[in-house]
Specification:
single chain; alpha+beta; 6-stranded mixed beta sheet; 6-stranded antiparallel beta sheet; 13 helices; 19% strand; globular
Amino acid sequence: MNNINNAVDLLEKAKAILHLRSQQPKKPGDDFNIFAVLQLNEVDHCRMLFELLDPKGSHGMGDCFLRSFFDMVLKKPYSSGISVYREKSTEYGRIDLLIEGIDFCYPIEVKVHACDQQTQLARYDKFAAKRAKEHKVYYLTLDSHDPSEQSRGNANVDCLSFAGKIREWLLRCGEIAWRQPAIAEIIRQYIKLLDELTGNVQEDIYMQQIRNEIKKSQINFESAVAIANSLPIIKTEMMKRVFAEIEKHMEGRLIKFNSDYQDRAIQYCQSKIDKRKFPGVAYCLTESDGKIAALRFEVDWDSLYMGVTFYAEEKHLECSEDKMLEMLAAMFPAANCQNIKPGSKHWLWWKYLPAEDMLLNFNACNGIYPQLYDENGFNNIMKLIFEQIDGHLDHIIETGLYEESL
């Protein structure tokens, strides 16, 4: 009982400190972030990184950022005559970022929200091996997770994270650009956006107070450890509860044929290694020739979303754009397939729930996620999710597509 009381006391102290922080007046403009306003996607992150890395970039700083990137991120010696490319088209696929010199080749694949593609990194490795003896593929994600085996194959891949080496490098870029306040401010805002995406809680006087409380005694430290060890289990239970509510809401509307969130929620929330088995539940929209078009609700590397995907013998299909559009036309006669571009080789399309500007992030646990632990907040979030489902379900059943105009 004493251990429980100690943990409760520590939580109360932390709550009081965080309340003080929330009461501090903000200066005008503190909440403004141009990158948050623009809601960057994968391509936009690549553009930002490319602009800094390119010696000919509009920043006018020459190769100083690139030199620092070699030193801090790649851990490779820098040499002259280096070229940087963005969305480099090759016979092995389009590479997000490519850094190439006389005797080396480094493709960089950037993954923020998108899923891995079949043999993607293996193909890039083959490309790099043909270009130079010294070669390596880099896989850049928010949290430095491993790529799927289907994508990696036998490729020589190094994992990087926005929260780790990239953030450290960006901080260094800001220091380098201190004489150029406009550039330094843009870099600062980009770092702030990455902190929000990765759940990186930055140092301030109030967080220091919480740490000081934890360090005051053995009992406080043991209480903090107990609290930290409880969080993965709590997150697992909350993920299961959200999916259970979706199942309850969908009951009688579509036939459920695949539900894997019970086991996968544990792997996702409690495993530090394997987050590739995305938790979710799928409902049959229609089937033809042994294939099923499904509406699936899923949590990927960061957030909850829904989308249409295809299955065969209960296995998630991976196919080309042409094949996916062919299945769409065959299974949904009412669908207008013109100008439709599938979201990936796994998904015809997907949309975040409740909305793109209200991400329910089960990984970083920021944004609106903490509101789930308030009963009114939970009910309000689920109401928004159900409104998204109900507002589009009839159109999805008829055409397999998401009606953007709703």
